Amino acid sequence: xxxxxxxxxxxxxxxxxxxxxxxxxxxxxxxxxxxxxxxxxxxxxxxxxxxxxxxxxxxxxxxxxxxxxxxxxxxxxxxxxxxxxxxxxxxxxxxxxxxxxxxxxxxxxxxxxxxxxxxxxxxxxxxxxxxxxxxxxxxxxxxxxxxxxxxxxxxxxxxxxxxxxxxxxxxxxxxxxxxxxxxxxxxxxxxxxxxxxxxxxxxxxxxxxxxxxxxxxxxxxxxxxxxxxxxxxxxxxxxxxxxxxxxxxxxxxxxxxxxxxxxxxxxxxxxxxxxxxxxxxxxxxxxxxxxxxxxxxxxxxxxxxxxxxxxxxxxxxxxxxxxxxxxxxxxxxxxxxxxxxxxxxxxxxxxxxxxxxxxxxxxxxxxxxxxxxxxxxxxxxxxxxxxxxxxxxxxxxxxxxxxxxxxxxxxxxxxxxxxxxxxxxxxxxxxxxxxxxxxxxxxxxxxxxxxxxxxxxxxxxxxxxxxxxxxxxxxxxxxxxxxxxxxxxxxxxxxxxxxxxxxxxxxxxxxxxxxxxxxxxxxxxxxxxxx
Length: 531
Description:
Strand order of the largest sheet: 10-12-13-15-14
Number of strands: 15
Strand content: 15-25%
Largest sheet: 5 strands, mixed
Oligomer: single chain
Structural class: alpha+beta
Shape: rod-shaped
Order of helices and strands: HHHEHEEEHHEHEEEHHHEHEEHEEHEE
Radius of gyration: 50 Å
């Protein structure tokens, strides 16, 4: 089982999710138990609210000397042990003190103990009884009837409303309900309290006739709810969903973090940093994927290193026979005076020079490719871009007398870059523009917040849109407007792209809006200044 778990990330996820559901179930059961406890306490408080509110209201209306005799009367009628206590004499706790100050009824069980504050005083009434019975409810209704009997008719409704009746809705009736039998009417006339039961809900109501009046007092119906009220269900549901969502988030966060590291490693390798590897944390599915990824990166790195080493070795080996051929051609040229032979020898010498330049280009491309693949940092220095452009113009202008090379006006720009490579990239673009331009060439420098932009524009035939991606591939030449007869080996733009990649920048090509030919753009990001 342990081996199975260690080799399956998703099985662990499902098991953790199942465990999370069990935890949420336990939380839900605990929450429901807590809510049921709160409901039970509230139910008891609401049931006790009528007799306690009735007694404390009457105690508040009499003087302190009359309270003791009134308390004894209440105790005899209700079958309770009643005591008046000062609030300062009993330590009830912070929350209990706050509730009793608001006029709520405090209820405890085994034995039953009820406490409520006498309005506008520092006394509270404490009632103790072993168990609830009909005597308490009937006695409460008899006391309520006596209290209402002593009040004027027009004040009864207002005083009845001022009582905290809890779960006992109080109503004064001028006519009896239709379902009252003659026998029940006789019981009411004798001053008894009648208990009514609503069969479909088992709700209890108490009915009492005020003495010597055709007015009846009804308390109820009272029933305990079968379902949780919405104000309790909604917080419970939200809490359960929040806990479940948090647990699932924590489970998925681990898997997502490992996938994000794998994605980052793939991005770094795609940018040429093949030394990047993924940290292996376990031997599950994601761990095996990381090991396969590392193996792939190692294999690709080995192949590319071998390719670069082979290119460099072949290029170096080509220099020796090229040098011997050049030496032999020069010896033969010195040994003959025949014009035809010397012309052929000069052609051979030009081909050798071209081959020598090609070897230099291949070596440069291989060296840049190796630095990019191995992730080596270029040696950066502060470069004056305008001075660099002027050096390139001074180098190429004498070789292209029929072409005007112009450096557009602009600000002086300094940039952290590898000076030799950056000048080589600009020189390649300018040389390329000189080769295909007709009369005019412009170099423009732009300074932006995050990068430096260098544009090289010419008035040549331009580059077709469908060929603008392929021209940066090694040994690629265009067959129509930029013909092979104009020279070049197809490596110049590839070298420019490698140099820009080493600087974290890019090179793009489009149409020059000013000259109508091609416009090559170097985008070099700014870096922090060297200390």
